[in-house]
Every structure is written in structure tokens, then in C-alpha cells.
Design goal:
By secondary structure, the protein is of the alpha/beta class. It has helices spanning 20-31, 43-55, 70-84, 108-129, 155-175, 193-196, 206-210, 230-241; strands at residues 11-15, 35-40, 60-64, 87-92, 133-142, 181-186, 252-254. Helix 1 crosses helix 8 (230-241) and helix 3 (70-84) packs parallel to helix 4.
């Protein structure tokens, strides 16, 4: 029987860990033996995830921060280094899909806020933690197929994910000599509040979203695509995080069921 993947003795940082994919990744990593540093914007949500990690017997730092705030992000990263001394895995999961309209009609504030969350956030977290990463470290950037193709709407999201894709590849080229791998993780359609385009207070659980069946797929996706549970993405992230030194870097790992 194949041995279970282990992150015993590792320290992982997961952003946007209050719900959805980030929550699933954090809990999966804790279950595999990692200690965690997690953040999200909601104090209530991040406290609940932190308590669940503690219940699994793992150490955890859980803070509510806005990653577009430079000082709060720096303070979070400094707390991680102070508490754990080093970092083995960074999962840049926090993201925003704030402006969904046509470019000419877009709200400039929401357009740029999307860029700040999706690009500046991962940049700041990685920039402040990268020197504390040990050999064999992994940086996993949650990106999207929309970063590889233009769309008629949601230009801010497309542009932000394209920028994150390029940052991923640039870091892969810079960090391989330190035995740190940097890869893309594309979930494809996943049962989250962002996918559901839910209004605050009207979020549905992954199970509720999945119960709607294939009709929940956005228009334009092929019939063979399907909506994934966040736990499926977490298992892919665990495989990436547990890869030994010398594994892939600068590569795309995707759960989407269509060419990128």
C-alpha cells in the first residue's frame, strides 16, 4: 500500500484560509502533520479554522488581515518567522473577483483592488517569507485558466492571474538553486463562494453548490468539465507540497478538465 503523504515537521503558510479552498488546504496540511500559519479577512472564520487545526494537535498562528495592507502583511510574516523560525510551504490562495463587467464600464477602484489582492498580496507574503524558507521548500500559487486567455469581461481578474502566472515562473527561475520549487495550481471550477458569486451572508456550502449538478457550470465550459469540491484541490496541493527535492518547478498543475 502506498504510504500516506506526510508534512510532519513542516511549517506551511496558507492565505485566504478562512473558507473554501484555503480552508481545505490548511486542514489537509494539518492532518498531514504540518504546523500552520493562516490568514483571512474574517476574524470569525479564521478563528474557527485555527481551532480546528489546534484540535488536530498542530501549532497554528491564525490572524485576520487584509493582504493589501502592507504593514499588516509584514507583521503577519514577521510573526510567522518569530514563532516557527523557518517556513517550508507557502500557499498563496487568497484572491478576489471583484469586477466582472466589461472594461469600458468597469469600476476603477474594484478593478485595481482585484490587482492588489491577486498580485500584490502574493508578492508581499512571498517577499517577506522567502528568505526564511528551507531547502526543499514549496511555493504554490493558486491561479486560473483565465490567466492564460483573454476574456470579454472580468479583465481585472484575467490580468491579475496572468501577472501571478508570470511571477510564478520568474520565482521558479530564481529559486531552483536553493532547492525551492514554485508552481501553479489551477483548481478549475470549484464549489466556493467566489464560484457561486454569492453575496455576503448568502454563501452556500460546497455540498449545497454541488447538489445543483452540472447546471452550476458557468456558460462556455465544455460538457466534460465538472465542479470540484475544495477538498479535491487540497489533495493536489498536498501532493505538490510533499514532493521531494528535485521535483517539478515552474509547472502547471491543474484539476481543470480542458486544455489551458
Amino acid at each position: 500500500m502506498k504510504e500516506a503523504l506526510s508534512l510532519a515537521g513542516k511549517v506551511a503558510v496558507v492565505t485566504g484560509a478562512g473558507r473554501g479552498i484555503g480552508k481545505s488546504i490548511a486542514l489537509t496540511f494539518a492532518g498531514a502533520g504540518a504546523d500552520l500559519a493562516i490568514c483571512a479577512r474574517s476574524q470569525e472564520e479564521i478563528d474557527q479554522v485555527g481551532a480546528a487545526i489546534t484540535a488536530l494537535g498542530r501549532r497554528v498562528i491564525a490572524k485576520a488581515i487584509d493582504l493589501t495592507n502592507t504593514e499588516l502583511t509584514r507583521s503577519f510574516c514577521e510573526a510567522v518567522i518569530h514563532e516557527f523560525g523557518a517556513v517550508d510551504v507557502i500557499v498563496n490562495n487568497a484572491g478576489a473577483y471583484l469586477e466582472r463587467g466589461a472594461f469600458a464600464d468597469s469600476d476603477p477602484e474594484l478593478w485595481w483592488k482585484t490587482m492588489e489582492v491577486n498580485v500584490r498580496g502574493p508578492y508581499l507574503v512571498t517577499r517577506h517569507l522567502v528568505e526564511a524558507m528551507r531547502p526543499g521548500g514549496k511555493i504554490i500559487n493558486l491561479t486560473s485558466g483565465k490567466g492564460f486567455m483573454a476574456g470579454a469581461n472580468s479583465s481585472a481578474y484575467h490580468v491579475s492571474k496572468a501577472a501571478l502566472n508570470m511571477m510564478t515562473n520568474a520565482l521558479a527561475n530564481e529559486l531552483w538553486q536553493r532547492d525551492i520549487d514554485v508552481n501553479h495550481l489551477i483548481p478549475g471550477p470549484t464549489a466556493t463562494a467566489t464560484f457561486d458569486n454569492a453575496k455576503p451572508g448568502e454563501e452556500r456550502s460546497p455540498e449545497e453548490i454541488l447538489s445543483t449538478g452540472a447546471d452550476a457550470l458557468p456558460k462556455g465550459l465544455p460538457a466534460w468539465e465538472r465542479v470540484k469540491h475544495p477538498d479535491e484541490v487540497a489533495m493536489m496541493a498536498l501532493q505538490m507540497a510533499a514532493w521531494p527535492i528535485g521535483g517539478p518547478t515552474g509547472q502547471i498543475f491543474s484539476l481543470a478538465r480542458r486544455p489551458m
